[in-house]
Structure formats: structure tokens, C-alpha cells
């Protein structure tokens, strides 16, 4: 059931002051989508709070193939990247955020609780209307960094692009406590990390291999960073598109864990200044808008580039974005460069006043990996190669 947009926005505004839980997937997205300053800053504050509270929870438990596996991604203001899928027979339509930082697939259920407001304003799955539905019923109750989903597992056919996955398990969300998902542009989440992190059974990119739809656990992501363009890029299951990137720049990085898409982060370079990192890891996470790193290092970076800092984040004069030094991430003896314009997020603070926030957050990460979110992944064509346990980054053409 999808209420008219006006109703959705109204609900959102009414609930705004009560927001106490924000999913890392939506992160800044909603704030930037709405653009009022106080809310944006409040949410950064709350997000930081919840990040620190919940950050470990997620860790618990070439032929024409490239054309067959291709799915067009939608982009909402560079903030949400999501794709259409269908579930059931006859097919029921959903839009799900692509999240390489989690592994579960879930969508809101038709049988959601009355107080699940997210369910009022999103597509819901009605298993009673699907001839291919198979009940499973195991309870799910899991959290993202700050979001929370409760419900049960069901089995049905799921179509992603041209691929139909038979007997795919996924979560039917009955409760989505908090307001995390109420204002999301997407209905649910498609987790694309490794199966060990999944609460809903085998992830779709593995199911594709088991069903011999693709030869190996591999997919590629291209994100369009033109926020005025609704074409958000592409995800290709089973292959990659060499017309999208400069092949001679493709560099593969070995994974250090097969949980998240995780690898060693050796250091950073800002202009001429090198910052060595000892024993640090990073993950490639399409589900995060921003880059998240160690507080001390990130704050040093802010000082070096002359950013103004308050408790909510750091920003620079928008006229100076072109003069910002490049930021290189050193991974596997390679430098991956972001220019100033790549690591800036423009936020309209008041009607005629835009502020250029740095899309990098400093947190007390402890031993948690750095998060290379869309600000980083939008700069490079990324190949997620689970079979060979590596990720490939290449310059976009
Ligand atoms: C795959 O889907 C696209 C549309 O999404 C379609 O144009 C294309 O023909 C399909 N390819 C195959 C082999 O089914
Ligand atoms: C799907 O599950 C049903 C019920 O367990 C089973 O009868 C059917 O053979 C399965 N189909 C496939 C393709 O695995
Ligand atoms: C591709 O990358 C190589 C190596 O950096 C560079 O010399 C070449 O000009 C690039 N080609 C294109 C089309 O950008």
C-alpha cells in the first residue's frame, strides 16, 4: 500500500522531532533530502550517538553475461542508491537499497504491525497473493548500525533484473521500530556482503551461483554521482562492463576477511603529507553515504584542509572546494585519489545558503574498520569478486 506522497511527507515532518534511530543506510540521506539545517545537524549528532552504541552489532553473527546481469540503479540526490526487484507470482514490486555493508534481504510485510509507520508508506509483500510462497516462519530480529527490523523469514521467488531466484529466503518485516525507514525512498534492503553476516539465509548473489545463473560470486557497481540525474548507475551481477572504466587502471585488492568486503587500509595522503595507518582495515560499503574513519586522523585532516569544525561536522567555504587538496587512500600499494569535489557534500542550510560539508566523519572506531561509502565508491568502478576474494577499483571513464 502506498499512500500519496503528500501524506508521506506530512507524516515525516510530524515525526521528525521524535526520530531516535537512523539506519546507516539512510544516514545523511534523509537530512540532505529535506535540507533544513537544524534537522540535519541534529541527526548527525544522533547518528554519531547511535553509531557508537550499535556499531558492532552488524558483525555478530564477459560474454553477454554482463548484459543479462545488468540492473539499472536509481539515485536519489546522491544519497540513496536502490534497485527494483519483484517477489512472488504474480510479481509484487519493491525497491531495495543495495548495501554491500550487510547481507540480509528484507522488505515490509503486508501483515506488518499497525504501528509500523514505514509499512504505511511503502510497498508491502502479501504472501497470500503469491502462488510460489512457501512459509518458513523463523523469527528475525536484527539491527543495522542504528536501524532495527523484526519479523519472520519467508520463501518465494525473487526476481533481480533478468534473474529469477527460486525459493529465495528473505525477511518479511513486521516491525521496523523507530522512524529509520519511514522516510526512506526504498522499501527494504538488499544485502550484498558475505553469507556469514546474513540473518535471512543465502544472499541473492550467492543464490545466483547455486542456480547457475552466473558462473561465480561476482558483481560490479557503478554509481552515478550526478545528483540531478535519476539514472543512478548500474549493478551487474556476474560480470562487469569494460566500457565504463579505464581497464589499465583496474587494481585488485585482496580481502582480509569474508564478512564485509574488507581489506587492509595502509594509509592516507593529503597533498604531500603521508599518514601511515597501523593495522587498519576498511570496508567497501555502498550502503553508507559518507566515509567514516578514526576520529583523530579525520580531525587532523580537517585541520590540514582548513575546514571549520563544530560538534556536528566539518565544512569549508563552497568557493574553496576547487582549492582543496586531493585525498589519497593507500590500499595495496596503490593510491586511490579523491579530489575536493568528491569528498564534499553540499547541504542547503537556508534558502540561499549552501554549506559544503566534508563527507568524511570521524568516530571512535576502536578496532572497527573504516567505512568507504558512496563518496569513495562513486569515484571508482568497483568489482566485488567473492570467488577470488578481492575487490577491484578502476577509474571511471
Ligand atoms: C535483460 O533485461 C533487460 C531489461 O532489463 C532486457 O532489455 C534484456 O533483453 C534482458 N536480457 C535477457 C537475455 O533476458
Ligand atoms: C522449492 O521448494 C519446494 C518446497 O520445498 C520444492 O518442492 C521445490 O522443488 C523447490 N524448487 C526448487 C527449484 O528448488
Ligand atoms: C587510462 O589510464 C592510463 C594509465 O593511467 C592513462 O595513461 C590513459 O590515458 C587512460 N585512458 C583514458 C581513456 O583515460
From TrEMBL:
Cystine pairings recorded for this chain? 112-119, 318-356
Signal peptide (UniProt feature, chain positions):
1-21
User: Its Gene Ontology biological processes?
Assistant: proteolysis
Record's keyword annotation contains DNA-binding? no
> Pfam families given for it?
Asp
InterPro entries attached here? Aspartic_peptidase_A1 (IPR001461), Aspartic_peptidase_AS (IPR001969), PEPTIDASE_A1 (IPR033121), Peptidase_aspartic_dom_sf (IPR021109)
SUPFAM superfamilies listed in its UniProt record: Acid proteases
Q: Where is the Peptidase A1 domain?
A: 81-394
A GO MF term:
aspartic-type endopeptidase activity
Query: Which keywords, in A-to-Z order, does the entry hold?
Result: Aspartyl protease, Disulfide bond, Hydrolase, Protease, Signal
| Catalytic machinery residues | 99, 285
The question of whether Calcium is a record keyword is answered with no
Q: Which family does it belong to?
A: Belongs to the peptidase A1 family.
Name of the protein in question: Peptidase A1 domain-containing protein
Native source species:
Rhynocoris fuscipes
List the lineage, top down. Eukaryota, Metazoa, Ecdysozoa, Arthropoda, Hexapoda
Amino acid at each position: 500500500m502506498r499512500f500519496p506522497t503528500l501524506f508521506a511527507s506530512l507524516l515525516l515532518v510530524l515525526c521528525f522531532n521524535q526520530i531516535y534511530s537512523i539506519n546507516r543506510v539512510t544516514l545523511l540521506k534523509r537530512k540532505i533530502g529535506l535540507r533544513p539545517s537544524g534537522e540535519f545537524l541534529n541527526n548527525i549528532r544522533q547518528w554519531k550517538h547511535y553509531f557508537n552504541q550499535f556499531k558492532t552489532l552488524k558483525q555478530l553473527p564477459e560474454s553477454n553475461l554482463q548484459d543479462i546481469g545488468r540492473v539499472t540503479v536509481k539515485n536519489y540526490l546522491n544519497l540513496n542508491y536502490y534497485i527494483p526487484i519483484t517477489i512472488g507470482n504474480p510479481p509484487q514490486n519493491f525497491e531495495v537499497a543495495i548495501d554491500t555493508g550487510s547481507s540480509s534481504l528484507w522488505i515490509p510485510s503486508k501483515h506488518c504491525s499497525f504501528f509500523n509507520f514505514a509499512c504505511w508508506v511503502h510497498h508491502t509483500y502479501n504472501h497470500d497473493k503469491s502462488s510460489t510462497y512457501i512459509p518458513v516462519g523463523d523469527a528475525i530480529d536484527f539491527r543495522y548500525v542504528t536501524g532495527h527490523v523484526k519479523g519472520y523469514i519467508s520463501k518465494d521467488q525473487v526476481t533481480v533484473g533478468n534473474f529469477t531466484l527460486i525459493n529465495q529466503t528473505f525477511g518479511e518485516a513486521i516491525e521496523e521500530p523507530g522512524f529509520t525507514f519511514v522516510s526512506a525512498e526504498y522499501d527494504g534492503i538488499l544485502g550484498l556482503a558475505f553469507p556469514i553476516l546474513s540473518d535471512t539465509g543465502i544472499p541473492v548473489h550467492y543464490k545466483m551461483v547455486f542456480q547457475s545463473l552466473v558462473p561465480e560470486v561476482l558483481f560490479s557497481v557503478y554509481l552515478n554521482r550526478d545528483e540531478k540525474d535519476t539514472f543512478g548507475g548500474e549493478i551487474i551481477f556476474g560480470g562487469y562492463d569494460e566500457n565504463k572504466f579505464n581497464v589499465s587502471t583496474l587494481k585488485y585488492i585482496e580481502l582480509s576477511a569474508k564478512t564485509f568486503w574488507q581489506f587492509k587500509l595502509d594509509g592516507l595522503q593529503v597533498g604531500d603529507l603521508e599518514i601511515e595507518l597501523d593495522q587498519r582495515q576498511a570496508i567497501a560499503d555502498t550502503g553508507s553515504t559518507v566515509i567514516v574513519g578514526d576520529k583523530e586522523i579525520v580531525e587532523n585532516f580537517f585541520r590540514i584542509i582548513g575546514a571549520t569544525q563544530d560538534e556536528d561536522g566539518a565544512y569549508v567555504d563552497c568557493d574553496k572546494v576547487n582549492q582543496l587538496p586531493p585525498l589519497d587512500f593507500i590500499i595495496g600499494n596503490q593510491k586511490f585519489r579523491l579530489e575536493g569535489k568528491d569528498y564534499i557534500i553540499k547541504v542547503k542550510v537556508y534558502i540561499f545558503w549552501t554549506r559544503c560539508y566534508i563527507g568524511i566523519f570521524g568516530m571512535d572506531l576502536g578496532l572497527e574498520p573504516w567505512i568507504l561509502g558512496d563518496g569513495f565508491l562513486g569515484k571508482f568502478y568497483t568489482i566485488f569478486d567473492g570467488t577470488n576474494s578481492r575487490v577491484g577499483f578502476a577509474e571511471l571513464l
